[in-house]
Each structure stands twice: as C-alpha cells, then as structure tokens.
Amino acid sequence: MALSDLDIGTADRADELAEVPRAGMTPDSGRPGWAARAAAGIGRTISAALPPLLLIVALVGLWQWYVVANDVRPTTLPSPGRVVTEGWRFRSLIWENTVPTLKETFIGFSLSVMIGSIFAVVIDFSKPIRRALYPVLVASQTLPIIAIAPLMIIWFGFGLLPKIIVVVLVTFFPITIGLIDGFRSTEAEAMNLLGSMGASRFEVFRYVRLPSALPSFFSGLRIGITYAVVGAVFAEYVGAKKGLGIFMLLQKNSFRTDLVLAAVFVTALVSVSLFALVSVIQRLTIPWYAASRRHEQNA
Questions:
Q1: pLDDT digit string (tens) for 154-208?
Q2: Domain 97-298 sits in CATH 1.10.3720.10
Q3: What are the residues whose beta carbons fall under 8 Å from the beta carbon of 159, sequence distance 6 or more?
C-alpha cells in the first residue's frame, strides 16, 4: 500500500469520526441532547430545592428540641413527631375535609382565571373601559376579606357557592393585573413591524401581545393559586359543613392542637403542590421563556 493511500484513508476515517455526535450531543452544532438537558434541569431543581429543605429540617429540629427540653404540654404546642403521628392516625378524616377544600379551590380559581382573562382583554382593547375599570379593580383590594366572608355565609348559606365567591374575590386581582401588565410590556417595535406588514389589530394581539403577556400572566396565576387555597380555608373557617377550615375550628375547640397543625401542614402542602403544578404548566406552555431566562443568567 502506498503512503499516499494510507494518508487518504486516515483522513477519510477522521472525517467520519468528526461527523459522529458525541454522547449527549445533537448532530447539529454540538448542542446538548435531551438527556443532557434533562440532567441539567434535574440538577437545577435539586440545587434550588435544597436550601429551603435544609432550612425546614433545621426549624423542625429546633421545634422538637424546644418541646422536649421544656416539657411543653401537647395542648399548647405538640412536638412535630406527635403532629405527624396523630395526623396519620386521623388521615381518613383529614382527607374527607381536604376534598371539599380542593373542590372549592379548583372551581373558584377556574372561574377567576376565565373572568380575569376576559376583563384583562377588554381593558387592553378599550382605553375608556380601562380608565373606568382599572381604579375599581385596585379599590376592590381595599375591602377586607375577613368582613366579606361572613356576609357571603349570611347571604348564600353554608353550601359551595359562598366559598367559590370568596376564592374568586381573593384571586381575581393578581390574575387580571398580571395579564394587563403583560400586555403593557409588549415591545412597540414588534407591534410596529407587524403593523407595517398589514396585520390587523387582532393579528397583532394574537401573535405579539398575547405571547408577550404570558410570563406575567403565569406569575399572576402562581400568586393566585396560593391565595385560592387560603381563601377557601378561610371561607370554611367562617362557616361550612366540611373542609379544612371548619376542621381546624372544631379541633381548636376540642384542644387538639396537634390535629390543627396537621391540617395546617396539609394546607401548606396543597398550596406548594398547586404552585409547582402551575410552574410545570408554564414550562410546557411557554418553554421559550425559561430558555431565555437561562440564557440571560448565563450571559
């Protein structure tokens, strides 16, 4: 074999190896593949969740030490171990009262999202309506929910309706304002570009203003979903037949502080889970936003 033929064969083999993508990389431009991106996402999630988890563990340990060291009565402050034990023993009863709270939360929050979205779009399309409604929306937040909730019970009874109304009142504002502020944050250059290409006002809204408003909209949803759980529990606390709020009230009157704290823990767990669910929906709905945020952080 000639030396020139060997050199040509070696060069061809090197070209073939260069075309083979490395593990975890896509063939185009050496970008990380889905496995690498998934691993990076898991790593970011763990690094973000680890500090608050460590803080919670430290606080629970301090709570346990204080109760044991000072021999605090369970009716005053039960230990975390007792809260977990008694909560597990009465898990069926707690679950029976959790289901109505979840039902009120989902129905009220869904109505709030629909009504808030309609209001935000109408306010965005009409300046006179914006000038008329926007101050009313802001003033509505000055009404104390602690005074409105009992009135809902008086007017509509102890059924499902008053709890849904309270949830809507509590969550309506952050959802609506988040979407309105998102519409306002749309870049004027993008709207002018579509306008110069002959796009109608509806097309500008569909292709520019709505996508630009989605990040702010989801921020309002994350705030609203936590308010929804608190609003449902508070409405039940004022008056209900079933629910975590009335469960806490009854256990407080029976001096079962451990079960009250168990219900508080369940309420917090539900709020955090729904908050995380909205975050997951945001990532699936607007994946480009998370990618742009990571790009800005790495820049």
A1: 888 888 898 999 999 999 889 998 998 888 887 778 777 777 787 777 778 888 8
A2: yes
A3: none
